[in-house]
Automatic annotation (TrEMBL):
UniProt-listed InterPro entries: Helicase/UvrB_N (IPR006935), Helicase_Restrict-Modif_Enz (IPR050742), P-loop_NTPase (IPR027417)
Keywords assigned by UniProt, alphabetized: ATP-binding, Helicase, Hydrolase, Nucleotide-binding
Domain Helicase/UvrB N-terminal: 13-205
Any Pfam family: ResIII
Taxon lineage: Eukaryota, Fungi, Fungi incertae sedis, Mucoromycota, Glomeromycotina
Protein's UniProt name: 10264_t:CDS:1
Keyword Hydrolase: yes
Organism in which the protein naturally occurs: Paraglomus occultum
Annotated SUPFAM superfamilies: P-loop containing nucleoside triphosphate hydrolases (SSF52540)
Superkingdom field: Eukaryota
Gene Ontology MF terms in the entry: ATP binding; DNA binding; helicase activity; hydrolase activity
Entries under Gene3D superfamilies matching the protein: P-loop containing nucleotide triphosphate hydrolases
An example Gene Ontology CC term for this record: cytosol
Amino acid sequence: MLKQVILYNIAKKLELREPNQQAFQALLNHYYQTKSQNSEKLSECILSVATGVGKTYIMAAILNYLVETEKITNFLIVAPGKIIREKTINNFSLNKPSSLADKLTIKPPHIIDIKNFHTTKTTDKNSVKLFIFTVQSLTQAKGKTARKTSNYDEVLGKSLREHLSKLDDLVIFADEHHLYYGEKFSEAIRELKPKILIGLTGTPHEKTPTKEIIFEYPL
């Protein structure tokens, strides 16, 4: 059941604009509808919002709400490239000019990326973790071209990809979702078997089923 008071407090603290609030609520409505159906099938949905509307604010609001109400502790933002990955890391890190971390109503999540996932923090069940990776770094490869995320890690006792795929509360945000319909990129994300896959894009891919687009806000 949607908790309106918590939703309101998050929207107020983040100073969400109206389209952001609408996207935020649309996603939560979809989440609870899917949850009530007790389906084991991957729930994938798209928030189609134009560039400049504030996708990062929407992701921050959703993360905040799901931590506070559903006790979810594992989130992954998939970025289309290194520049957006670094920008996203800054957006969720304290003491950065563009940071939203101090605008959350919860303790900011622990940021995990390609440089620091080899630590016990990755498996800490008591902390909220926000994994931020490029889609390229998550693709599977073997032999000399194997990605770091596909290699066995001594601290994790498995590869990072395997670790993520075994989490029962993984929520994935796919930034620029329309880019991830190629076979390798699609597998990189969907084979992680998230609880829900939330795509954000201003231009949904032509293969996207209409029913998956739960919110649209074009310029």
